[in-house]
Amino acid sequence: MSTAVSEINTTEYLARIGADNLGSVADTNRLRMLQRQHLLNVPFENLDIHWGRPIELDTEKFYQKIVRENRGGFCYELNALFNELLRDIGFQTRLVSARVGDGKGNFSDEYDHLAILVIIGEMHHLTDVGFGAFSSWPLQFIPDLEQEDEAGVFVIRPFRDEYFEVAKKDEDGWRSEYIFKPLGRDLSEFEARCGYHQTSPESHFTKNKICSLMTVNGRKTLTDTKFIVTNDGEKTEKPLDSDEEFDELLLSEFGIKRQYHMR
Predict the structure, then answer these.
(1) pTM of structure
(2) Nearest in space to 184 (alpha carbons), one of 135, 131, 87, 114
């Protein structure tokens, strides 16, 4: 069962992402800064799946976790809650379902990823704070327009069967990130796939822990086996020797303390 929060404390949420001084107009510039601040302050992480804390599609619980407990989450949590904030401060939005590419031309099932379309005037913007290393700014929904930001060069282009593809340029050309249809979805429609990612041995979320956060000059990522820091294009990796070392880095680098829960 999914539940949308009826009212959030916008002041508290904006303070959580360091965006309490970004004005009050629901315009493109404010949307851009809100997304970037969210990415700089709220990590993409799947820790509850490994700590035995079931994730329910309930934005009241997302709010408690992300804002009050200073945690992160994965796409269903991060984008669903961010969507509530955007609506609460005056943006017109639509939840969309995306299918993630595997780098070999195949795509996952529908509802595998949750993203947001924000409508400002006659322009749509693909907004996403729940896909890990993705664009820093919202992407204008203008087919075939190459868009560059500090995270790279992206394009949204028509795909087959009325889908649109989001691709990122790398040294080998364009790499498909995901495909989506610009149709409005209800949070409850993502419930089965959210459950799959928490329980299936085929889900990459059940295989390894991850906590990743964009930084001003790059990104830092903690996994079961290493701590990776990218700074101005230079990457360093520190191997981990124990769970205790993981917990220490999780606390010192992300401000998250390990939690123990029984299913």
Answers:
(1) 0.94
(2) 114
